[in-house]
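Pilot study result, target chain (179 residues):
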Amino acid sequence: MFDNIGKEIKTLAVVLTVIGIAASIIIGASLFNGSSAGTFLGIAVMLVGTLISWIASFALYGFGELVDKTAETAETNRQLLEIIAHQNGIDLASQADTMRGNVNTAGEQITNTAASACGAPRDEQKEQKVSSKCAPLPKHLSERLYVLNDLKMKRQISQEEYNKKVNEILAERDSQRRN
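Predicted structure:
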């Protein structure tokens, strides 16, 4: 029922718009009584009611779109967190509190792990930015991942294609590390 709430909100916006337009037409038609005033009033109700129904749907439809995009962003962030954690040897499955939404803790863990891998002392880990020699992905693979995420956000590739390409990037990175 609530698996794809953004789409359901947008569908509701369309349904309410259709109902509002139909109601405006029915009420407007019922005002026709043969006189010119009744005809004018009926046409005015039809036009104004239709316009109000259509314009009112913008906010609800826009909210549904916002919910959709937010869900996509959250999913992409989750996948990126998993990729970064995988690259740095962090087992997110054992980090239940991190997976419950504590993104700051996860980001700090990843930074600390990467800084430790670079040989930074424990007390300097928070201040040190990870140098390019310690970056989990070579630049060309990072750029490919960036483009891939952009395509996913624009819905130009499916989730299945996205997962396949991410796995290819990770496999390429792993093969480069072995060589």
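One observation from the pilot: The chain has six helices and no strands. A full batch analysis is planned for the follow-on phase.
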